[in-house]
Each structure stands twice: as structure tokens, then as C-alpha cells.
Amino acid sequence: MGTTTNNGWPTPVATDLVKDGWEAIKDLGDAIDTTLGVYTPSTSGLTLINTTSFSAVASQSINDVFSSTYDNYKIILDITPSTGLDTRFRMRASGADDSTANYDQQVLRAADTVINGSRALNQTFGRFAQANTDNSGRVTCEFTLFAPNLAKFTYIHTIGMRTSGDITIENWHNIHSVATAFDGISILTSAGTITGTITVYGLAD
């Protein structure tokens, strides 16, 4: 046997007998295993869980997307409303929306050169973007959900942007203030309908 690797793993040499080849391979494998330990495959930061498209609906529910596999999640939402409307969401468990008055929210909004904010407590839904009464343009939104499937308060941070005339950016912070484990989410409107796509990703720890 010769030892020529950086890690000191035993390797065969030309003068070794052929009959000893199995032992050389075994020794090399044992040395590599001892050095590297248990192999853990790498995982990407985002894992696609679900993509759902919908057309002209007043609400769209997504079930069984939050589980014990991931603590935190990312949602990408791209919608076109039929009219000016308030875009909302509710958390879901076992196929049913949670419409209790346990949603608290704070928003920071920038429209043109005007920046303002507001808050609302004890609501029956969360909010993620608003469309002006004259706005039927596209609304895009990125949700980050913290611990929706754990029996903890669920924190939902959303960044939304809408266009039609002026560009408006809204930074929403929502809290579901009861320790509840959810497995889904519903997207809702205050009026009219929405058409678009919702995509859910799991965030690796």
C-alpha cells in the first residue's frame, strides 16, 4: 500500500498483488468514510411546493402547503383584479378559513412622492395590497410566512406593488395573534374578482 492522498487515505501501488485488490479498496473506503462521516445531501434555499393558477375568482384557497417539513415559507402572488379592490388573505386549517378577529396589521405605503402608514387591529382577515378605485392593473406581492404550521403566533410580512398610472409600493406586516397551526391560505377580494397565479415555496433552515 502507498499513501499519496492529501487526507492520508491508503491507495494501492503498482507492486501490490492482484489478490489483495479487494483489501486495498476496502481500506480506501473505510478511510474516506472515517474522514467525511455521515453524508448529508445539500438542500436548496427554496423548495417549490405548489403552483396554482386561477381566473376571475372572488377567492382562491390553497390547502396542505404548510407542514412540519419547513418552519417558514415564501409565497409569490401575481394577480390582475377586475376592478378597484382591497386584496386580503385568511389562514386555513383542515380546509377551513380562520375568520376570527385575530389579525393585526401595520402598513407603510409609498405612492408617487407621498409616504404614509396605518394600522388595524382585531380584523377578520389580513391585508397585502390595495388597488385604487380606478386601478385595474396588475398587483404583485411577495409573502414571507414565519411558523404558519407551528402552534405559535403566525407572522406574515408582505411586500406588494401595483401599477396603473402611479406605481405604489406597500409594505405590510400582519400577525395572527393566536397560537394556531395552519396548513393553507386563502386569497380574498373585497369586491370583484382576481385572475393570476400563486406559488408556494418552503424555506430550508
Describe the structure in your own words.
The protein has about 200 residues and is mainly beta. The chain folds into two domains: about 35 residues, no CATH class; about 160 residues, Jelly Rolls, CATH 2.60.120. About 10% of the residues lie in helices and about 55% in strands. The strands form three sheets. Strands 3-15-5-11-12-13-8-9 form an eight-stranded antiparallel β-sheet, with no helix packed on it. Strands 4, 6, 7, 10 and 14 form a five-stranded antiparallel β-sheet that branches. The longest helix is centred in the first third of the chain and has 16 residues. The radius of gyration is 26 Å and the shape is elongated.
List the helices and strands and how they pair.
Elements: E1 2-3, E2 10-11, H1 21-36, E3 46-57, E4 59-62, E5 72-81, E6 86-93, E7 96-97, E8 103-111, E9 114-123, E10 126-130, E11 139-146, E12 152-162, E13 168-180, E14 184-189, E15 194-203
Antiparallel strand pairs: 1-2, 3-15, 4-14, 5-11, 5-15, 6-7, 6-10, 6-14, 8-9, 8-13, 11-12, 12-13
In short:
The protein is mainly beta.
Annotated CATH architecture of the largest domain: Sandwich
* Strand order within the widest beta sheet: 3-15-5-11-12-13-8-9
Q: What is the N-to-C order of secondary-structure elements (H for helix, E for strand)?
A: EEHEEEEEEEEEEEEE
CATH fold-level assignment of the largest domain: Jelly Rolls
The CATH class label of the largest domain is: Mainly Beta
Radius of gyration: 26 Å
Q: What is the share of helical residues?
A: under 10%
Number of domains: 2
Quaternary state of the chains: single chain
Q: Could you give a short account of the major beta sheet?
A: 8 strands, antiparallel
Mean of all residue-level pLDDT scores: 85
Number of helices: 1
Task: Give the terminus-to-terminus CA distance.
Answer: 43 Å
Question: What is the number of strand segments?
Answer: 15
Poorly predicted ranges? none
What is the overall shape? Answer: elongated
Strand content bin: over 45%
Alpha-beta classification: mainly beta
